[in-house]
Every structure is written in C-alpha cells, then in structure tokens.
C-alpha cells in the first residue's frame, strides 16, 4: 500500500494547526451518568477524514450495547481505568494503553463496568457524531416511539445487534 492521493496540492504549506487544551470544558455532559465528552477533532474540521473525541466515564456503568456502523470505522484507545469493549465475540476488559479498532460492519460496544475511566474515541471518516452525542445527552430515549428511535439511530448510522 502506498501513500493516498494528495490532499494539499499547493507548493508551500500554511499555518493551520489548532489546539484543544487538556483542561478545556467538556462539550457534552450526560446528566444521567455524569459522563463528559470533549470534541478534539470534529469531522467537519478535518475535511471529513476523521473525528476524535475524549470520552470520560464518571463512574456509574453506562455505554452502548453491541451495534455496528455501515459508513464508518471506530477505534478506542483507553487512557485510564478499565473500559469493557465488545469485539464481536465477547466483552474484553481493556486497560490504559489498550487499543481496539473496529472496521465498518464490525459489532462493537463499550461500557465502564469498573468505575471511572477515559478513552479516545476515533471515527473515520469524520461523520457528524456531535449531534448524536448531544441529543443522547438531552433526551430520554425511552420516551421515543419505536419508529422515532429507529429513525434517530439510522440517521446516525447505528444498527443494533439482534
């Protein structure tokens, strides 16, 4: 495999880096769990190449069950604590430094069964995951009709394991 086609076609570079400080406020806080998400690189900021998020589990067990995506890959890099990740075959206890990559179509899920934890969550290509995270934080999914729930999940490329 070689290098992909050029993204930058100019002869000179430019100053275009951005910084997200480690102590910046979360972009989303989930009232039900206390989980916090910081947007490190939004899909629209990377030209749709990827999205990167810092996910902090506050303590109470939370996280999605087994599901898959049709349009994107998802990767997890555990920073602290223990994140239990479904790899399509079973739930794995992942510790700081562990990395899990899930290609499109691969069943996966994640949760914090062992208290507070944090991870980097990477999506490629850079789909607009922010509206999904934000709506999950403000809305009771149990209050949705089955069709509303299906439509919301489909809009955000989430398909649950049967």
TrEMBL record:
This is Putative cupin domain protein. The lineage of its organism: Bacteria, Bacillati, Actinomycetota, Actinomycetes, Micrococcales. Gene3D superfamilies: Jelly Rolls. InterPro entries: Cupin_2, QDO-like, RmlC-like_jellyroll, RmlC_Cupin_sf. It comes from Nostocoides australiense Ben110. Residues 56-121 form the Cupin type-2 domain. Pfam families: Cupin_2 (PF07883).
